[in-house]
Structures are given as structure tokens and as C-alpha cells.
Amino acid sequence: MSSVRVFIAATTGPVEIQRITEEDPEVNSVVCLGGKAMPLPISAAYDAFVRVPTGVVQRYFGHAAYRADISATVEDGYSWQLGMFAAHGLFAARRLAAGDDPSPGAILVATGEVDRDLNVLPIDHLAVKLERLSGVVAAMARGGARVTIAIPAGNRDEIDEEWLAARRLGPGVCRVLPVGTVEELFRELELDPPAEEAAHPIAVVPGVEAPTAPRTRTLALVAAGLAAAVLVVGIAASAAFSDWRALGEAGRIGDLDKALNEAAREGGLPGFKARLFETWLRYTRPADGSVEIQVREFRAPGRGSCAAVRFGSAKAEAHLVAKSAPEVFETGAFEGLCGLEIAAEAGSDDVYLWGRFERRMGGGGGAPDDAIVLGPNSRSLKWEIDLPRRLPAALNARLVVIAARHPLDGAEGWLGRSIPAAGAAAEGRAWYDLVARLNARGVTVVRATYRVGR
Predict the structure, then answer these.
(1) Is residue 200's pLDDT more than 50?
(2) Minimum mean pLDDT among 115-119, 271-275, 399-403, 410-414: which range?
(3) What percent of the chain has pLDDT over 70?
(4) Cβ distance 196 to 61 under 8 Å?
């Protein structure tokens, strides 16, 4: 059977799933950008999508950890799940085309959320995602590969044939396929219907190697024994879990970090308990993408001046700034810019935010000239930034926001010290290591930068 290239339909355009690689089951699954050592923000959500008990990939394909390389970042909630699950099905069948495959037999573009029963749930912004595809589908189809765009059946009423044909997304160029279940998509891809693995290890007790033989009755018995051992450990550890949970709920993240580190250093059963609790914290923290940062510029109307705005003879006009990259807002011009408002908004009232705004004048990577700390607040934070009358050099702004399911008591202490100021320590691998560490303490981290040019 032919190979298939798989793309996720995102609001920014199609994103290719270039490669899937099996990893050590004891590490977390990760999504990286184009083969680079750069984990993307959806990695934690992907790990939860893979690993039992929350995920479905391990349940249907038997392995607990993967690395997925994609061609661009994805920030669209959970609509990447249908394309990713299909890619795993093709990978298991040895039919997932590599990113550099010049002549795949077929191309799949997919959008949709997948639940635990493999139903495909409706998603938002379908029209925008299809619009982004209209200019590239013809190029995808060069060489004779057929293109299928899989969408949730629940979104079927949002499109019509004339709309599709006008954008060259109708018959003759590609096929739009509404699906209500993953099984329907697998039939289209000529894959066997997804079926749960008979058995697979869901956890490994330290000192006991996971079996690597084929999945047989013996494997089922070993897995059952491991599951029972994990259950016993969980019961025995209930008191420790209660103490750690109390620290987290009180927002004492520094004390929680110390307690978990001490347990990990002790090794053995205490270390195993700490790893279990860290896994629970990762899954219960606010999801990646659940906190949105916005930058709003207030500009003098027409050819007016900011002086007129300050003296009340004119009213500033608000403009929402677009992003040029996932964590970077487009550069603003200083001329006519009278004020700035930067806001962070969580998706629900049970999320608490703390944030730090930093301003640095001029280039280079020096320390910030000014910093404004806000929070902890429930759901939202807002910075209202006064601008100088004259701008001697470019203004560089950076915002870091942390989110948790509880008030972050002492965020200006341990957490505040953990978040580095702008500079080398705030970039590269050190930053992603910090994000992973805070994720394991139940904290989600978001950042963004904005620049005003002279």
C-alpha cells in the first residue's frame, strides 16, 4: 500500500507531521520542531494524548512514549489530535511518509479532537483553517497524489460545495471527508480499524525491567502484576501524596519542590512515589494554550498626535497586535503610539495567574530597565504601560506568565527567582528545562515578546 503524508490543518496554515519515533517508555512524549532539539508547547498535551490512562495512542498502539517532529508550531487547542492519531496509525503500518518524501501516494490534511472512545469532536475556526489551505492544496497535489481533508462530522454544516469549489477544495482537486469516528478515517486510509492492545505495561516498579517479548498470555500476566504492584504502592503512599497535595494547594511551590527533590534523591520507594506524583501534577496543571497573551496599542487617530490624546482633544484608537511567531508579537512603530496594554487571560476562573513584565531600552541582552509584577489573580492580569515622550532607542518588552490551579503564594519568592530575567538564561535549552521542571510542579509557563521601533 502507498505511503501517506499527514498535515494538521491549523489556523496559521498546514503543519506537516514529518516523523514519529519511538522513545524510551520511561520518558515523556515530546513534539519538536523540524528535527531540532526544541520541544514545543503542546508537548505536555501530546504526552497526555499518548500515555494511559489519559491518552489513547498507547492504548491502541502499545507503546508509551514517542517523539513527533512537525514542520511548524501548533497552538490550536486539541484539533491536532485527529491528524496525530492518523499519523500514528500510518506509522504503525509503516506507511507514514517522511517529510522529504517527494512522491507519496496520498496526502491527508486533518483537524479534529479525539475522545477516549475515538469519536471525532467538532472544533472551532474551521473556515479559517480551510481558507489557509486554499492556496496550497494544488501544490500538495502535484505529482498525482490525491488529497483528503478530514474534518469532524459535527462541522459539516459550516461549509457548502460552492464555497469549497471557489477555493479549489472541491472535487477534482481534493476531497473533503467529514468523519464522526477515527474508524471512518482509517477506512479511507485503508488501515485496519483501531483495536485496543490486549495488554501493555502501564507502569514499571523500580528494579523490575519491563518485558520486551511479544505480547502473549505471559505478557498479560506480567502487566497485571505490575498494575497490582502500582496499586499497592499508591495505597501505601497515600499519606505522602496528601502532604504534597496540601503544599501544592496552598501555593507553596518552593516547599513542594524541595520535598519532591528530597524524595527523588532518597531513591527507592520514596523516589518512585515522587515520580508518580509529578506525573499527576503534569496532567492536572492548566493545559498549554489555555492562557492567552494579547498586546493592544493605543494610537492617535489619523494624523493626530499623542499630545492631543493626553489633553483630551482626541481619543486614542485601540489596535490588537498580531503575532509574527508563536511567542513574538509584530514590531510596532513608535510614531503615533500613545500607550500600551498587555493582558493575560486564562480560559477558566479556577486558574490563577502571576506575571512579570520587563522593559529594556536598546539592543543587546542586558538586564531589564524596569519590571512590573502582577498577581496572583484569578483568571486575568493586565499591564497598562506608559510610554516615554521620546524614544532614544528601540523598546523591547518581555512578558512571562505562570498559571496554576491554586493561588501562587510567594510567587515573588521561589517562583519569581526561578524565572530568569531577559538574557541568555531565558532562552534556549535552559528555558525549556525550566518549563519542564515547573510543569512537574503543577505550574504552566507562558511567555511573549514585543518590540517598539524608533
Answers:
(1) no
(2) 410-414
(3) 82
(4) no
The 10 Å Cβ neighbour count of residue 323 is: 16
Q: How far is it, in rounded angstroms, from Cα 313 to Cα 445?
A: 41
In this predicted model, what pLDDT tens digit does every residue of 204-253 receive, in sequence order? 333 333 334 334 444 444 444 444 344 334 433 455 577 888 888 888 88
Distance CA 384, CA 415 (A): 23
| Helix pair angle (253-266, 268-284), 10° resolution | 140
Strands annotated E in 180-268:
none
CB distance 293 to 446 below 8 Å? yes
State the cell numbers at 196. 485496543
Q: Which residue has the cell 491549523?
A: 10
pLDDT single digits (tens) 136-167: 877 777 667 788 999 999 988 888 777 777 77
Beta carbons within 8 Å of 195's beta carbon, 6+ residues apart: 60
DSSP 37: S
- State the pairing for strand pair 337-346/113-114: unpaired
446, three cell numbers: 507562558
154 DSSP assignment: G
**H or E stretch at 245:** helix 238-249
User: Cβ neighbours of residue 311 under 8 Å, at least 6 residues apart?
Assistant: none
Q: How far is CA 413 from the centre of its chain?
A: 27
Q: Are 55 and 44 in contact (CB under 8 A)?
A: no
pLDDT of residue 88: 95
- The DSSP symbol for 304 reads -
The average confidence (pLDDT) of the chain is 79
Q: What angle do CA 121, 28, 292 make, to 5 degrees?
A: 55
- 169 torsion bin: left (phi>0), alpha (psi -120 to 50), beta (else): alpha
Label the pairing between strands 317-320 and 291-299: antiparallel
CA distance 242 to 277: 10
Q: Which residues pair with residue 416 across a beta bridge?
A: none
Interatomic CA distance for residues 405 and 249, integer angstroms: 8
